[in-house]
């Protein structure tokens, strides 16, 4: 008789930052089922399609079970991981000897998140070889968030709690799908339903009636790219109508007159024309946000709004709007995000003053860009690889990221990847980028490694409106063994392995604060690692949590996760505190003058590019991940070009028509799909699809690469280098250009 062993245990899905508590079933050593965990007090049984696909993700036939090495003929053959480390360490040593440490760069993508030790160890390794070239996906995401916080300062009392607020403003973000910001990511649809049931009024600014916008009390559906002018108009109106929190301003804020002056030109009528929305709606939104209810909420912006240029300004205006209305947690109120696996801290009703946010540290050789609080400008890394001369990048190590799918200017990116003397990816499959790599290191997957929620807590330092709004934590041990016969390494172990071979001493630093370490709530944990270091991931996690408010052992005693009874209340400000938040930053408000001077009419009426292409997230895919899984793609592995049905009809096209989408920079093939939630003058597409540059013909299987349409050196944020990845002017023509 066949004997079947089966067990079901609590685990954590870390595909996105929500970190849902799940139940994972392992049958005969294989992950066979993942469902929501009804006994998890935070998620109460919630998961999404991606989390439930974790078995398919782990057992994906395309998954790499051995690291791969490119052969002289361009094919790949398995290489033993220890051997790969020997060879890569030798190659790195040689490159550093020849070209200096700056020739080695690192890029950390979104799949650092599931493995909290991975980004820290990768960073320690790069510091160990003394290279400053550490890049992350953050600077092609919403780097303006950290720039704005540096210019504005932080409120040490922390965020207002969404779960208690009476109003909230969301700008170009769709948290019901993305779980990213504003509405707490822990079952956001349910959180919003509860809030609306309580009487909350949600305001959403989005050119698309997104899943979130559909539930809003006021949905402003503007032309894309007008968010800074809309926020400026709201601030202007709130100031003119004297709806500001004057007491809060008097005690805590400087720069009010500068802000009032800078927004003066943004009248409702002017912005109504620019944004193509009714002026009355802007007025209603401003009044509602400023006055409705007693427990009032905050403003959060997402990728949609951040990509349309002026991202740093936009994020700054969002903070200014929050601050003039006094929307921060006050003395005597509970702390919204009290830390659990992070150290306890004393929240105080006082500002942490602004700090240096950009124009320091390592200088890039292009576009005058520098290191910043949001990190090094990733959109310039391809240039750093292509540009010959002193300092040129010759080697790139990519951790859980996919430049060929996700970076702007795909053609340039491919030229750069092909030019590298050494490209190493740490990836679970032969991703687009891995297909150009010299070595692909095959890592363990989520359920094969221990898990904890510290990373999900940590993101609160990155932006207001993120992180877990409760003293919640969960720890889960390894739930399944890696597939039999496989040879897989955890990412952090790979870097330790390299360091040992290169005789490096590494300083692994876990810091708790914002501003890239400039703003610390508690001292960092520093671990020294060298040739004698012998650690398990479990031991490393224990070290990373050594200063936790709730000890990791205690958290582990509650396998379904627990909301701890933490009595954290915002304290009165220190009597000698003189710090102020700044809402008058000269540089960022200077960008508002640039917005005001824009010739929006010519841009709007440009017959050569009559549509604007905007981003949106796919519920079933995490950027480029998951598209090759039948359970997630449901027979549609590509990213359609969504257009309003009337606009499709006007083109004489229909569902499934193949078109060419052309920006001033480049063009891509795509498949049309009607979507009546869109404005008639926009096209929406998911990013991170498509093949390599020569594979356009496969667009019905691989989809289309939106980044192809985006130049990195024409329109970009002067501080972060973030190019215009949204609000892209395009035209659509039937048929595929040859
Ligand atoms: N045009 C346009 N461009 C954009 C965006 C947009 O909306 N429009 N969005 C931007 C944003 S917000 C971001 S964050 C970036 C994303 O940029 P990236 O992070 O570079 O891209 P991803 O597709 O998330 O890359 C994830 C990679 O991790 C691999 N992977 C999956 N699971 C694991 C694992 O368990 N371990 C490891 N080591 N690897 C794994 C996947 O196979 C994939 O290759 O793209 C940006 N680019
Ligand atoms: N399911 C899923 N979840 C994800 C991801 C994923 O790929 N899939 N990716 C993760 C990542 S890396 C990130 S950074 C977050 C992103 O999270 P979000 O920022 O919430 O991203 P989206 O869900 O695309 O929502 C962006 C919204 O902006 C709107 N928009 C587009 N252009 C404009 C504009 O010019 N102005 C305004 N006001 N709105 C505009 C779009 O219509 C869309 O509804 O999501 C994360 N979560
Ligand atoms: S919401 Fe995020 S963390 Fe939760 S199941 Fe889905 S992908 Fe996983
Ligand atoms: Mo992102």
UniProtKB/TrEMBL annotation:
The keyword Kinase is assigned to this record: no
Domain 4Fe-4S Mo/W bis-MGD-type: 6-62
Keyword terms: 4Fe-4S, Iron, Iron-sulfur, Metal-binding, Molybdenum, Oxidoreductase, Signal
Superkingdom, taxonomy of origin: Bacteria
PROSITE patterns: 4FE4S_MOW_BIS_MGD
GO molecular function: 4 iron, 4 sulfur cluster binding; metal ion binding; molybdopterin cofactor binding; oxidoreductase activity
Similarity-based family: Belongs to the prokaryotic molybdopterin-containing oxidoreductase family.
Name the UniProt record assigns to this protein: Molybdopterin-binding oxidoreductase
Organism: Mycolicibacterium hippocampi
